[in-house]
Design brief:
Blueprint (H helix, E strand, L loop, with lengths): L1 E4 L3 H6 L1 H13 L3 E3 L9 H5 L3 H14 L7 E4 L2 H10 L7 H9 E3 H9 L12 E4 L3 H6 L15 H6 L6 E2 L15 H4 L1 H17 L4 E4 L2 H13 L5 E4 H6 L4
Parallel strand pairs: 1-2, 1-3, 3-4, 5-6, 5-7, 7-8
Helix pairs in contact: 11-12
């Protein structure tokens, strides 16, 4: 299996350990990984605001970085960014190369659960009580977990993977599918609403005596961690790649 690793800009700049954990994890699993070094933003922030004009350059550069179609997949540890590439990267001409890149892009949890079908992470040990936060993009865009508003049969690919790690105790909070309020540019344009939604999530974790919040989306965790720190909460936030790889933390 040959993959190209798609590291979103905010992970590269703010949470580099998540990128390292993703690379190490894939290599542990026998995957041949290439990391295009010129990658930057995929264009999601501009696209979210309807700014197609300024999405063009970032989307073009993304495709220039991943235009080697010899890869089986382009794997990214970020549901919202992968969702943008797969479903909303349309500011640029949809050439056959662009279509192929979009089709081959996949989120990390999906890749591990659906493609590699990993059954064990023998090197990992995480003796903590955790709550899972799947982002709205991951649930409703990529379908990594059942959508409660659709009344679907329950499933949760993130949970399936975490339960294969020694020591992990998964707690179910009251409203696990509820948005945390980050929403990309929403947290800027609707600051008060965004903050209150994040406070509700932190309170939910606290009620259930959670130690760590684990997610495939570091952007949501960034928002929630900021709120938790302001409230002087002891909650900790980590990406699922860090748990599955046993670090770095």
């Amino acid at each position: 299996m040959k993959v190209a690793l798609f590291i979103p800009c905010y992970i590269d700049l703010i949470y580099p350990k998540v990128g390292i954990a993703t690379l190490e994890l894939l290599e542990r699993l026998g995957v041949e990984v290439t990391v295009p070094l010129q990658q930057t933003c995929c264009g999601q922030p501009m696209a979210n605001e309807g700014d197609q004009k300024h999405s063009v350059k970032t989307e073009t550069q993304f495709c220039e970085n991943f235009n080697d179609l010899d890869f089986d997949y382009i794997v990214g540890p970020a549901g919202s960014c992968v969702k943008h590439v797969k479903f909303h990267m349309d500011a640029i001409p949809q050439t056959e190369t662009v279509k192929e890149i979009r089709t081959k892009t996949i989120e990390l949890v999906e890749f591990l659960h659906d493609v590699l079908k990993i059954e064990d992470f023998p090197w990992a040990d995480f003796q903590h009580t955790v709550a899972i936060h799947n982002s709205c993009s991951s649930i409703r865009g990529l379908h990594v977990a059942s959508r409660f508003e659709w009344q679907e049969p329950y499933f949760n690919k993130t949970e399936d993977l975490l339960k294969k790690v020694a020591g992990v105790d998964v707690k179910t909070i009251d409203r696990p599918e509820e948005c945390c309020g980050f929403g990309g540019t929403f947290c800027v344009t609707d600051e008060a609403v965004s903050s209150k939604m994040g406070q509700d999530k932190v309170a939910d974790y606290t009620r259930h005596e959670v130690e760590y919040v684990v997610s495939p989306d570091m952007s949501c965790l960034m928002h929630q961690e900021g709120i938790a720190k302001r409230e002087k909460s002891g909650l900790k936030f980590v990406h699922i790649a860090q748990v599955l790889n046993n670090g770095p933390f």
